[in-house]
Sequence to fold (543 residues):
Amino acid sequence: MRLQDWPSLRLVFPLIAGIIISDTILNTRADVPVWCFFAIIATLIALILIFSDRHPRFSGLCLSLSFVAVGTLSYTIQMNRVKVEWPRRWAIYHGVVNSYPLERERTYRLEVSLTDSLYRARNIYLYLPKDSAAQSLLPGQTITFDGKINKPSSEGAGFDYASYLLSHGVSGTLRVQAKDWWAGQSDGPLSLKNRCIRFRRSIMAKYREWGLQGNALAVVSAVSLGEKRQLSEGLREVYSTSGVSHVLAVSGLHVGIMCCFLYFLLPSFLFRIRPGGMIARLCRVVSGRKDMLELGADVFWLRELIVMLVMWSYAFAIGMPVSITRSLIMFSIVAVCRAVEHEGSALNSLGLAALFMLVVNPSAIFDMSFQLSFSAVLFIVILTPPLLELWNPKNVVVRYIWRVSALSISAQIGTTPIIMYHFSSFSTYVLLANLFVVPLMFVIVALSMSLWITGWIAPLRDITVNLLTWMIDTLTLLLTRVTSLPYSHLELSISKGWHIIAFYAVIICIYLWYKEARSHRLVQALACVAIASVLGMIQNFVV
Fold:
């Protein structure tokens, strides 16, 4: 097993290293600025290029260092664009509302994009007092306010809230009184982003009109539109404590169901050209080739193109969440491979998805949803096949339980360090919960998608809504029973980021030992544990 077999992963790891190095330098306010580090990397690349003719192996090192430099430079540029030195005095600002008011305990929170020439396109969180005027604001509406914008702060948040806001492109926060802001009208045509936000709200209004309410409305909105604002704190707690909160995100499960549905609506025989057929005539007109009329051919690539266009349009309409973006990039790569009749690699597809997302948005590496999504899929791809090879039961029910358990174990191994780092907790009955969550959620997602069709036919709509409500209530009840079991939630925490790296290094070494049957991999795993222990001891003595 070699890393060379997955070239995309060879590029992702140096890119991540560059982003982390840049973040470390920027956060620690080191004496050596990030530009000096970038200059050192550039010098090393130049030297390697000079001597690459004598040492061909240096080409791979040169490529890796190049992606370290790309990660360092791209993250630095992004942070310099997001971080703003706001004036220390009160000023009047103009902006465009980019969200519906989000209700907090005492205020409404709005995402506002500034339109002032000095701070154009900077995003801030604006907190307005609760009243009818603030509640009626719409995405795309202009707003004027007076105040002193503050840098993101973590004070009283309980976690690094400032880094969270900066990684999501929020440059500041401001709380104003009712007399210090004025609403305007929509300034010109709505942006595509605001059109999508209004589209999601109109779909939710349709859900209510069709009879969905309470937990059913909240779960259907989450799994079909990526809209989690309707989820109550109690419902969030049930899914989180049982360890299955990931099913509320629009992810690979949803993409797979929708793709299967689209492939069903577009059977392959529609894209098989018969001599003299209508598709052959159309292809002849488009391509100008007369032989397309006589010769038979297949245009299955057109089917893949239509499915991917529909799926990407859907993803953009629901706000391009991390989980569905990752899934769609992987599905798109698989679709391209299928269209050209080439077998693709799941790990290469995953690496390309991470590479694309991190080049576009380097700060996504610090987003918890990005970390959980990619770590879960990575370990599912790596660990599930060896686990399934350990046992192949003949009974259908036992085989299903073992397959679901293998998937759950792999995903849990991949996400446990991140969950312990962010939440300081661990769900002990996640394997039990996944045995019924996976099939029930599959049906719920399928019914949620079919509601967009049956919703316009009253009898079918009522049946679909009643089924959805019953299944979601049943799922919530089962998860509540699981969370009520003794020791369902353990308080375990990881306090340092390098602890996570050590954990993953040990797992990878053990996996390589299993695949290669070489004892030195176990020695490497023990060395990782020893290094982590020594670093912990040194840190305790220093403190």
Notes: The chain has four domains: 3-82, 91-190, 240-490, 497-542. The first helix runs from residue 7 to 28.
